[in-house]
From TrEMBL:
Gene3D superfamilies: Neutral Protease Domain 2. This is M1 family metallopeptidase. The keyword Isomerase does not apply. It comes from Streptomyces macrolidinus. InterPro entries: M1_LTA4H (IPR034015), Peptidase_M1_dom (IPR014782), Peptidase_M4/M1_CTD_sf (IPR027268). The keyword Signal applies. Residues 288-455 form the Peptidase M1 membrane alanine aminopeptidase domain. Pfam families: Peptidase_M1 (PF01433).
């Protein structure tokens, strides 16, 4: 499965930045201030408005999605791509078993044919969108949750809808990012945007979701769960007859826990306790958690864990789960974004570094300079490399945090703390690169870190 492996799962102030600009009202022809860089990631400042209706058990969801966006680049934007990541495992399907995610009746542009194993849909805009202007496309969407136990999948009566909603692909100086889906790791890469999602479902189903959620009555026997999420990179939800509990951390974050009745009680207790402690601790270390609410979804058979903004999916045993690692992802990829296909270490190694710190793992001498598949391998290699070396992908989770602890010992713990907070602040709601991190670290010390990067394969 393509999230934190089970064997790793038990290794135990809101910042004022320009990128936190609120979304302006959508609509073609509304001019907004444009960024300076010609390489700016676009479409920028997307807003997703979604309404979906579920069948009796949450397997099928149908409705409409509208996404508005701005062109942040200096060049006219002639097309956008929707990523249908929910088709990643099944591809284009077969005549008897179609793809789980289907888009139809596209308005505001002309849909092309599906590409990249039916995970990318090109939409040509009716007229080129000039720099700083907004427009919108809308479409009908149909989601069929696969029967297998995965991030977009099922476990008994419970449904997981991770990476199910179509989202905009990033377009920058390299062109549109249309990387393939990978089963080991992630391919996901989006800019932060706003979501307003209404989910109409049977009242027998509890529906945890990204964002601040509220529920009210719908048609007889049905409930409408409404969620608003600002500055997030994706939207996920689950559905099922969950048991629930709610608490507010000392730091003011509302933590809602959802678990299946057969989830071990001690594991649920540990998950709730550690999840609440982690969100406050990482807020102190990296910058306050900005979303107000965090949902923990726990079942016994889900493999490892998977993170989404404001929601994490957790396989849970009597010994607990990967909640601390997954909560750390709220910062590393969620708030501080990166290209997960191009530089997976920036989210996974950083989340595991935070996880090791939380549990006080002894990392002295844990870096092994010889435990690498070949001389070309780098901690900073892309998923293109790691997908060809799946037996070595664990290095992202093991050698990655060890390298960051070695950097901490090189700089000193106080300096490393400032590096992490500055790096987060500088890229809050934005997109970061390995070069950005190296630049931040070097700026905090008089030591030349060139040899450190070389010896730790950070290229």
């Amino acid at each position: 499965m393509s999230f934190l492996p089970t064997w790793l799962s038990t290794a135990r102030r809101r910042l004022p930045v320009a990128l936190a600009t609120a979304l302006l009202a959508a609509g073609t022809g509304v001019a907004e201030a444009a960024p300076e860089s010609t390489a700016a990631a676009t479409p920028d400042l997307p807003r997703y408005d979604v309404t979906l209706r579920a069948d009796t058990d949450g397997t099928h969801w149908t409705g409409q999605e509208r996404v508005s966006f701005r062109n942040a680049s200096e060049q006219p934007l002639r097309e956008v791509y929707l990523r249908l990541w929910g088709n990643g495992v099944d591809g284009c399907g077969t005549s008897g078993s179609p793809s789980p995610v289907a888009v139809s009746r596209v308005r505001g542009g002309t849909a092309g044919s599906l590409d990249v194993d039916c995970t990318a849909l090109r939409v040509t805009l009716p007229t080129p969108l000039e720099r700083g202007r907004r427009t919108a496309v809308s479409f009908d969407v149909s989601l069929t949750v696969p029967g297998r136990n995965e991030r977009f999948g099922s476990e008994g009566a419970f449904r997981f809808l991770g990476n199910a909603l179509p989202v905009l692909a990033v377009h920058d100086a390299a062109g549109p990012h249309l990387d393939p889906y990978v089963a080991t790791g992630e391919s996901f890469y989006t800019v932060a945007g706003d979501f307003q999602v209404t989910l109409d479902h049977p009242s027998t189903l509890r529906v945890p979701a990204t964002g601040r959620t509220s529920s009210g009555p719908g048609a007889p026997g049905r409930t409408r769960t409404h969620s608003v999420a600002h500055h997030v990179r994706d939207f996920a939800w689950a559905a099922g007859p969950f048991r629930t509990a709610e608490e507010t951390t000392p730091g003011g974050v509302r933590v809602r826990s959802y678990w299946s009745p057969d989830t071990p009680a001690e594991g649920v207790r540990l998950g709730r306790q550690e999840g609440a402690a982690a969100v406050d601790r990482f807020g102190e270390e990296f910058g306050d958690y900005p979303y107000g609410e965090l949902d923990l979804v726990m079942t016994p058979e889900f493999g490892g864990g998977m993170e989404y903004p404001g929601l994490v999916l957790l396989g849970t045993t009597e010994e607990g789960n990967a909640v601390v690692h997954e909560v750390a992802h709220q910062w590393w990829y969620g708030i501080v974004g990166n290209d997960e296909y191009g530089a997976p270490w920036l989210d996974e190694s950083f989340a595991q570094y935070a996880n090791y710190r939380f549990y006080g793992v002894d990392t002295v001498d844990c870096w092994d300079p010889d435990d690498w598949p070949d001389e070309d391998a780098a901690l900073t290699s892309s998923m293109s490399y790691w997908s060809q070396q799946p037996n070595w992908y664990h290095l992202i989770y093991t050698s990655g945090p060890c390298a960051l602890f070695d950097l901490e010992r090189t700089l000193g713990s106080a300096t490393m703390a400032r590096v992490m907070k500055r790096y987060a602040a500088d890229h809050w709601y934005g997109i970061s690169t390995t070069a950005d991190f190296k630049k931040t670290a070097q700026s905090m010390t008089d030591k030349d870190l060139t040899s450190f990067w070389e010896s730790h394969r950070i290229r």
